[in-house]
Amino acid sequence: xxxxxxxxxxxxxxxxxxxxxxxxxxxxxxxxxxxxxxxxxxxxxxxxxxxxxxxxxxxxxxxxxxxxxxxxxxxxxxxxxxxxxxxxxxxxxxxxxxxxxxxxxxxxxxxxxxxxxxxxxxxxxxxxxxxxxxxxxxxxxxxxxxxxxxxxxxxxxxxxxxxxxxxxxxxxxxxxxxxxxxxxxxxxxxxxxxxxxxxxxxxxxxxxxxxxxxxxxxxxxxxxxxxxxxxxxxxxxxxxxxxxxxxxxxxxxxxxxxxxxxxxxxxxxx
Length: 270
Known about the structure:
The chain is of the alpha+beta class. The chain has helices at 2-22, 45-56, 145-170, 172-180, 184-202, 212-220, 241-248; strands spanning 26-31, 34-40, 65-69, 73-76, 98-99, 114-117, 130-131, 135-138, 233-239, 265-269. It is 39% helix and 17% strand.
């Protein structure tokens, strides 16, 4: 009997440990348009932990949603947006570091409410590393079967483009030497070699089909599927999707900054 009790106790401890490990952190983003409760994914630990660290320090408090595009997304987290005058261009502020990409696709994707990390473009950031502080929340639009089919067919071209930049980055020194020497013929030959390599690598590959749940979300909730596998999705809004719509509907100036400042407060929920 005592042995059975010990076994039961140990199994209970193991079960409780697993439950604790799987528990997902929740954060609350407060705005004048309402609150958004956000779940952070455990499968993106570096992004999760960084966001928690900044939120606990109060980093995001009084920063702005400085870039708002209706039918696309709302973006914030630029430290230069705090008390920024209306004339100031925002979006270039950072915390001095970036975070390695943590793509968990197709499990996590850019459906409406997805929390994702902003980043610099592929030409200067081929590894798709994320900003250490700036993020966006997807609004997107609802897509029909025809548009989703187009997105699926684009998957091969996106993969080829990503691979192209990867190869160019690997041969960066060679490219530099040819440019310095103004050797256009050499650059053309190098480009042809890379394209031939791509055709060989992708021979026989077909478009990637979206899982049914993903298709359903993009049709019923909406989103921005063209960003999938390009930017790290590390959480999602679980309460307050209507707040995204309210913020996305505000009037903006050239450069997509709202005419009236939209401040945020971010806190980790216990």
